[in-house]
Every structure is written in structure tokens, then in C-alpha cells.
């Protein structure tokens, strides 16, 4: 059967990752979390106290940035590694979330990560989620989905997720973080968050998780 590329873009906290993961499992595809790559780059810059205004500092820090993904059979989940260290939990913290949009607007960071993402998807059979997957990373993707959901609903879902991981955060902090990231991601100069002209829009505010996954599976089957 022919393998395709599925690009899932949308606002922060819409459930793109969990949807993309479930979709990849059903189709036997590889799931790639491009946001985790921007988060890992952000953690790397924070750890090395990189001055984001200084292009040379950013460029030399990018040279020592190595991001990889490994499947953990104990948790049944794919985890993110930064220079050989498992950073899966740390990259989801509010500290990283509060800085990631500043890092992801830097042209040189995007060029490096987009090229790695294109390489990861070159053999097709991938589901990749992010902000510019259907517009920049894979403009020829056979299926593009643009996910949206009401801000408060998104924040409540994210609060539950973080509380389950034992992180101390409030609903207000999450609403502020999601709204700020949406604003920065949509208005930046480099690859702003935009719905591709040929994307299918999916509002998940009132959809059950299984229904949203099944809907995308049926879109995918139409294109395979
Ligand atoms: O998907 P997630 O919310 O983990 O992404 C974190 C941040 O990484 C986003 O708010 C955005 O600034 C950046 N990002 C991006 N382009 C992507 C994926 C994520 O700019 N393709």
C-alpha cells in the first residue's frame, strides 16, 4: 500500500500530539513531534545561557545540539533525547513553554530543524505535528489537517495532563501561556502558523478523542 505524509498543524494545546500519535499507531506510521524538537532546542539554549539576540552564540550552540527520539517499551511512549539525555519531562515544563516561542522565531533555528524534519519524513509513512508542517516542512503532504479548539477547553485539557505528571501549575498560567504562544507563533516573520490552503480544518472543542482520530483516519484512507 502506498505510504503518505500526514501534516497536522494548529494552535497550542489542541491535542495535535495525542491525535497524531494515535493516528500513527493505527496506520503503522512513524510519529514525529516537531514541537518537541523546538522544545529541546530551547532547553539546550537555556542550559547554556545562550544570548538569543547574538547570532554567533546561537549558531555555535546549534552546532552542539543533537536531538533524537527513542521508543521506551516500559511507558509505551516515544521520548525525546537532547545530546544523549532523556529530556521528555523537562521539555514539557512551563519554564521551557515560556521560552519556546522566542526560540522558534529564530530563522537559523528553523532552518536547522526543518531540514532535520524533512530528512525524518523523506521515506513517507509519517505523521508529523507542528505549526508549519503543511506550509513549509512538507508543502506536498498528501493530507494536511489544521486543528483548532476553544482556548479554555485547551487549557483545561493541558492542566489535567500536567497535574497528572505532578507539575504545579494553575489554569490561569496555562491560559496565559497558550494565548501568548498562539499570538507569537501566528505573527512571527519566519514561517508563521497558518492554515495551508489545501488543509482540512478540524475543531476539536466538542469532539471525543476517538471521534477526532477516526475522522482523520478516514481522510487518510481516502488518500492512500
Ligand atoms: O507543539 P508544541 O506546543 O509542543 O510546540 C512548542 C512550540 O514550538 C510552539 O509554541 C512553537 O513556538 C514551536 N513550534 C514551531 N514549529 C513547529 C512546531 C513547534 O514553531 N513545527
TrEMBL record:
Reaction catalysed by this enzyme: dCMP + ATP = dCDP + ADP; CMP + ATP = CDP + ADP
Subcellular location: Cytoplasm
Residues at which ATP binds: 10-18
Pfam families in the cross-refs: Cytidylate_kin
Superkingdom in the source lineage: Bacteria
Keywords in alphabetical order: ATP-binding, Cytoplasm, Kinase, Nucleotide-binding, Transferase
Residues annotated as domain Cytidylate kinase: 6-220
Signal peptide: none
EC number(s) from the headed UniProt entry: 2.7.4.25
Gene Ontology molecular functions: kinase activity
Principal cellular location given in the protein's record: cytoplasm
HAMAP family noted in UniProt: Cytidyl_kinase_type1
Family per similarity comment: Belongs to the cytidylate kinase family. Type 1 subfamily.
Alphabetical list of PANTHER family matching this protein: CYTIDYLATE KINASE, CYTIDYLATE KINASE/PANTOATE-BETA-ALANINE LIGASE
The name this protein goes by in its record: Cytidylate kinase
Gene (name only): cmk
Amino acid at each position: 500500500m502506498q505510504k503518505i505524509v500526514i501534516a497536522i498543524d494548529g494552535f497550542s494545546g489542541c491535542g495535535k500530539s495525542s491525535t497524531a500519535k494515535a493516528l500513527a499507531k493505527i496506520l503503522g506510521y512513524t510519529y514525529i513531534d516537531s514541537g518537541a524538537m523546538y522544545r529541546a532546542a530551547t532547553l539546550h539554549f537555556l542550559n547554556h545561557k545562550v544570548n538569543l539576540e547574538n547570532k554567533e552564540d546561537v549558531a555555535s550552540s546549534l552546532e552542539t545540539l543533537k536531538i533524537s527520539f527513542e521508543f521506551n517499551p516500559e511507558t509505551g511512549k516515544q521520548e525525546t533525547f537532547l545530546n544523549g539525555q532523556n529530556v521528555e519531562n523537562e521539555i514539557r515544563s512551563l519554564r521551557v513553554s515560556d521560552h519556546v516561542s522566542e526560540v522558534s522565531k529564530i530563522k537559523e533555528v528553523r532552518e536547522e530543524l526543518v531540514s532535520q524534519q524533512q530528512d525524518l519524513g523523506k521515506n513517507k509513512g509519517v505523521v508529523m505535528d507542528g505549526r508549519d508542517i503543511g506550509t513549509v516542512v512538507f508543502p506536498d503532504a498528501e493530507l494536511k489537517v489544521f486543528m483548532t479548539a476553544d482556548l479554555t477547553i485547551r487549557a483545561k485539557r493541558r492542566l489535567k495532563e500536567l497535574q497528572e505528571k505532578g507539575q504545579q501549575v494553575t489554569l490561569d498560567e496555562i491560559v496565559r501561556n497558550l494565548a501568548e504562544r498562539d499570538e507569537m507563533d501566528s505573527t512571527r516573520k519566519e514561517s508563521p502558523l497558518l492554515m495551508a490552503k489545501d488543509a482540512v480544518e478540524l475543531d476539536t472543542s466538542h469532539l471525543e478523542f476517538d471521534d477526532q482520530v477516526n475522522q482523520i483516519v478516514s481522510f487518510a484512507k481516502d488518500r492512500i
